[in-house]
């Protein structure tokens, strides 16, 4: 049996959104272990990151969509992850973004998220999606605003309180 | 190259061993909800944790080239358990595991599936040894491991599960499997 497990390639000016490679793991685990992962269920140890990495791949098989690895075109380095998350326990599919150390403040999160949002609307039928955001994560709140998303309600995911932001339609963009 | 899935489909007299997919979520969630059945297999788990476990087990195939098969009854297509190889980061070495879902025990299905998976590991993957990690007190699993010829080797500290007992399976040659000229073991025809 051969099942499609990897993400389609989506290119932007500076970034390549693509499927997972084994060599991506070190950057992935580095982010998972960092204090910055506290807004996305972390920090977690290397073993926990290995399981999350595998789950990120399996998500594509179970749902037909998921989070892409974001490769920085100029250096070939992994700059983060972006895409759709719909784990069991989520209210609906969520657009998420994780930017790794050294790649913040350059507009990459915006560039990657716009591309993922548009692709997901066109190809996965996921439009006007939500993002769960911890209100203390001021950088993510600022990005959501820049993406023209709007605060919808206070919610929770797996028992963690967070805000639900709603994105505008990306079909026509 | 991005990672892809290439999961074989294996057969025994009564079982199909196939790659895990979304159909398996309900039986796996039910299995993990039941502590008395799942405590030796990383459980119990909430439903959302079981979903993540299923996604993880699919990703395991992509990263390692092996993982857990879903065991399906040939005659009804019903998923009746899991068997295969597990070796996430932090594990001592690849292990052969098995579970049978509620209502399917006592029929020899775990042994039938696990022996097929072991044969596949030795003949198709070319592994030269295999272990099974069994939580102390999981007497059913110990009994099956011993019926399959595995023997207790040592106790170790599992990164997720705490104290764990490592059983060593017979090597390919002990099972009458031979190495051919290119070095990979092959079953006697």
Q: What is the number of strand segments of chain A?
A: 8
Strand content of chain B: 25-35%
Which radius of gyration of chain B do the C-alpha atoms yield? Answer: 16 Å
Main sheet summary of chain B: 5 strands, antiparallel
Name the poorly predicted regions of chain A: none
Number of helices of chain B: 5
Q: What topology does this entry show?
A:
The complex is a heterodimer of chains A (173) and B (189).
Chain A: E1 10-11, E2 15-18, H1 25-33, H2 46-63, E3 67-72, E4 78-85, E5 94-99, H3 108-123, E6 130-133, H4 138-146, E7 150-157, E8 160-166
Antiparallel strand pairs in A: 1-2, 2-3, 3-4, 4-5, 6-8, 7-8
Chain B: E1 10-11, E2 15-18, H1 25-33, H2 35-38, H3 47-64, E3 68-73, E4 79-86, E5 95-100, H4 109-123, E6 131-134, H5 139-147, E7 151-158, E8 162-168, E9 177-179, E10 185-187
Helix pairs in contact in B: 1-3
Structure in words:
The complex is a heterodimer of chains A (173) and B (189). Chain A has four helices and eight strands, in the order ββααβββαβαββ. Chain A is α+β, with helices and mostly antiparallel strands and 173 residues long. Chain A has a domain at 10-126: 3-Layer(aba) Sandwich (Aminopeptidase). In chain A, strands 1-2-3-4-5 form a five-stranded antiparallel β-sheet, with helices on both faces. In chain A, strands 6-8-7 form a three-stranded antiparallel β-sheet, with helices on one face. In chain A, strand 4 and strand 5 form a beta hairpin. Chain A is globular. Chain A starts with 9 loop residues before the first strand and ends in a 7-residue tail after the last strand. By secondary structure, chain B is α+β, with helices and mostly antiparallel strands. Chain B has a single domain (9-188), classed as Gcn5-related N-acetyltransferase (GNAT) (Aminopeptidase, 3-Layer(aba) Sandwich), CATH 3.40.630.30. Chain B contains five helices and ten strands. In chain B, the strands form three sheets. Chain B has a five-stranded antiparallel β-sheet with strand order 1-2-3-4-5. Chain B is globular. Chain B starts with 9 loop residues before the first strand and ends with a strand. The relative contact order of chain B is 0.14. The model of chain B has no long low-confidence stretch (mean pLDDT 93). Chains A and B meet through helix 2 of A and helix 3 of B.
